[in-house]
Amino acid sequence: MASVILSPDLICEILRRSSVKDLLRFRCVSKAWRSLIDDSRFIKLHLSHSLETSTNLSLLLSLCGKGNVYSVNFASLKTAQRLKFPGDGRRDFAVLGSCNGLLALLERKDAPFELFKRFLCKHTEVFYLWNPSTRKSQMLPASELGLAPYFFSAPHVFHGFGYDPISDDYKLVRIVQCFCLVPDLSESGVMVYSLKTKNWRRKEDFPFYVKNTRTNAVLANNALHWEASTKSEPDPENFDADFDLIAAFDLGTEEYRVIELPDCLGERLTTNINVMGCCLCLIASYREVGVADIWVMKEYGVKESWTKFISVETQCFEDRPDVLPLVYSKNGDKVLLLVGGMLFFYDLRSKKADKVEIEDVPGLFKVEMMVESLVPLNGNGAMLDKNQHGGKTKRKNIERDDILSKRIHQV
Question: What is the rounded CA–CA span in Å between residue 17 and residue 400?
Answer without folding.
Answer: 26
